Amino acid sequence: MSGLAPPPPPQQQLVFNQPKIELHVHLDGAIRVQTILDVAKRRGIDLRAHTVEEMTRRIALEEPATLTVFLDKFNQYMHVVAGDREAIKRIAYEFVENEAKEGVIYVEVRYCPHLLANSGVEPIPWNHDEGDLSPDEVVRLVNQGLREGERAFSIKARSILCCMRHMPSWSMEIVELCKKYQHDGVVGIDLAGDESLNCEANPDHRRAYEEAERCGIHRTVHAGEVGPASVVKEAVEVLKAERIGHGYRTLEDQNLYRKLLKLNMHFEMCPLSSKLTGACHPDFTKHPIITFKNDKANYSLNTDDPLVLNSTLQHDYSIAQKYMGFTEEEFKRVNICSAQSSFLPEKEKQELLLKLYEAYGMIQSTAF
Predict the structure, then answer these.
(1) Three-state DSSP class for 257?
(2) Which of 155, 161, 188, 365 is the most exposed place for a label (fewest CB within 10 A)?
């Protein structure tokens, strides 16, 4: 069956009804449509859409496009939630509930505090006199929402703070926030955005990552999604990344790929996202993930931005099974790799792995 066929609908039967780990999902790309409508109504913002169906049609990317078109979808709703205390805490709480419904027992959710702090999606300076939130307050609100969600839905949620390639002036503040909340919910730092903006042109990113490494802050980098393999090489060698966000284009440099396989580098992969952003060939049967799978690489399966993709984690698993030859055993292996490559402290990581081993029948339960 051709991988060009429409992917299976999210409502289909569960293909892996076991505990899962998600390591690459953006908070601002995982908001409930109803929440956007509710907040817009409360704030008096006219969205020219009054139902979930109408708003979904405006936000959702249904056909393969470019990363630019994909990112432009955020402009449809970010101005609604950005700068709103109640909304930011709510989306964090609801995010945890959504993950729990997917069978996720541990998630690392990422976001840029500066983008959620401002009243618009365009990067602008904050004017605290006008009541805009500070990035620090955004982190505290997200942490509160995640903690309340953890208690309510019995899963573990941590966050990663994103630097943006086009805004190097934010990066040192991002790493300072990572340091401040290092033992209060924030487990790592990320770099996202236009991969053509390398770190030689923006040394502030490199300085932020050097400080992160010095302070024991875990590091991941969006690289090799639409940019060439050289961006992945820079992420590993210059930014000292421990994980790579996406990384599909690594295969264009086989020497680099083989080196990273030996280093057990973790790749955070997002099947449906990579098709709809134009990052990969639209035929799922030709997806780079198949090569990573066949080589027993260290990688995870993730949603990236389920709101914009109008999708779920189970949908990505369905795609992997239907078009990429994934088996139950490979799903288990991938989730164990995800837990091993998580940014949790070692003791918590071992506890998480134990939960997976028991759930997957790999060891006898120690529960009485």
Answers:
(1) helix
(2) 365
